[in-house]
Design a protein that fits this description.
Blueprint (H helix, E strand, L loop, with lengths): L1 H12 L5 E12 L9 E17 L4 E6 L6 E4 L13 H12 L7 E7 L9 H16 L6 H16 L6 H8 L4 E6 L5 E5 L5 E7 L11 H15 L13 H7 L6 H25 L3 H17 L6 H10 L5 E7 L6 E7 L3 H16 L4 E5 L6 E2 L9
Parallel strand pairs: 3-5
Antiparallel strand pairs: 1-2, 1-12, 2-5, 2-6, 3-4, 6-7, 8-10, 8-11, 9-10
């Protein structure tokens, strides 16, 4: 694996890479569109991710190359950096900008990225790139950021440099992920609990609809504004700071304050989804996959009907999963508008599941999905020899 990356690095820069890092992607098991509403989410790191090889140069420039993209970029060390169109290297460039703004002393570097997260799939390839870059710079230049500092830094890059009003879940999950554990994260306080995720004889199937999601150009920001409108309406009588400060019973008592029917639907999803995460934590802790699966299906139905961020592609995957007795549960994951669904599938039946969901989906949609299996993996760190590249 290192041989492949070193060959690519030497081909690109005519020298060996001196440092190697890995940051995973993530899936959110349950708790969707909660992170910017101050509630509970339950993501986990996956074994797909972003590999980064780095070597210093003596030319006081940053060079960005990727095995996945044709676009290359080179820029000298300077005191300020600006977003450059919509290219992939804006993510590491934004991280460098944050380090510079914090008065960190950097030197020239040659970067080579390789990712096996499907682009536009909703598995947080952007957060993975941001976090691996921040981790590498922090390590190389001994900047003394804590891991939580790096998470907040990467979120700031996403919000302020890239221009997407996302919450902190993605960066947190790829930084703090633990093998065979889900993270029940309070997005308001950043307190979290690592929940044992013993899937027994099931594995995590990731089904990429292959409908690209251009999230920054989607209705994601519109949903954020709708939630803010719901919160403002509820604050007429409730002393709350986030929608997730109340439970379903309280919402049903005060929902009359929200006069816009669409905004009310958005709030109903958020508040009920937050309650589902609490129930899901109990179910996973008790190894009750049947209950966890029921909650996954309920989550998807809410995202489809109340939050309206699903679509025929994601719905088709979940529709098929409900007919398969070897699937404990399934749902869209990520922001929606395309991207991926996940399913808990019996390991012994995974190949059959992959074949059948592909046939069912292709017949209804007209093109095939991509189906992956994943373990629940560790967060960002130095690249380990045993971390094989899955392509």
């Amino acid at each position: 694996m290192r041989d492949f990356l070193q060959i690519e690095f030497k081909k690109t820069y005519q020298k060996q890479a001196e440092h190697a890092y890995f940051s995973p992607g993530r899936v959110n098991l349950i708790g969707e569109h909660i992170d910017y509403n101050g509630g509970l989410v339950m993501p986990c790191a996956v074994t797909l991710g972003t590999y980064l090889l780095v070597s210093p140069n003596n030319e006081e420039v940053f060079r960005f190359r990727s095995v996945n993209f044709d676009e290359q970029f080179e820029i000298p060390l300077q005191k300020d950096y600006k977003k450059d169109g919509k290219t992939w290297y804006n993510y590491p460039l934004g991280v460098i900008q944050h380090f510079v703004k914090d008065d960190k002393s950097l030197k020239g570097l040659d970067f080579l990225y390789f990712g096996n997260i499907p682009i536009g799939s909703g598995l947080s390839s952007s957060a993975s790139i941001e976090v691996v870059t921040a981790f590498a710079l922090n390590d190389l230049f001994e900047c003394d950021y804590s891991k939580l500092d790096l998470v907040k830094l990467a979120k700031s890059v996403e919000n302020n440099f890239i221009g997407l009003n996302s919450g902190i879940m993605d960066q947190f999950a790829v930084a703090f992920g633990e093998k065979n554990k889900a993270l029940m994260l309070n997005c308001d306080t950043l307190d979290y609990q690592a929940v044992d995720s013993n899937l027994g004889d099931h594995i995590l199937a990731i089904i990429n609809t292959n409908k690209p999601r251009k999230l920054a150009e989607s209705k994601y920001n519109e949903r954020v504004l709708e939630c803010k409108a719901a919160l403002k309406a509820l604050q007429q009588e409730l002393d709350i700071h986030n929608l997730c400060d109340i439970d379903t019973a309280t919402f049903e008592k005060y929902e009359h304050l929200i006069t816009d029917a669409i905004v009310k639907k958005r709030a109903e999803h958020v508040i009920k989804e937050n309650d589902r995460v609490k129930l899901a934590g109990v179910a996973l802790s008790n190894n009750n996959l049947a209950e966890f699966g029921r909650l996954m299906y309920a989550s998807h139905d809410s995202l489809r009907d109340l939050y309206e961020v699903s679509g025929k592609e994601l719905d088709t995957v979940v529709e098929y999963s409900k007919t398969n007795p070897d699937v404990a549960g399934a749902r869209m994951t990520g922001a929606g508008f395309g991207g991926c669904a996940i399913a808990l599938v019996k390991e012994s039946s995974f190949e059959k599941f992959a074949k059948e969901v592909t046939e069912y989906y292709t017949k209804k949609i007209g093109y095939a999905p991509s189906v992956y299996s994943s373990l629940i993996g560790d967060g960002v760190g130095l690249l380990k020899e045993e971390q094989a590249i899955r392509v």
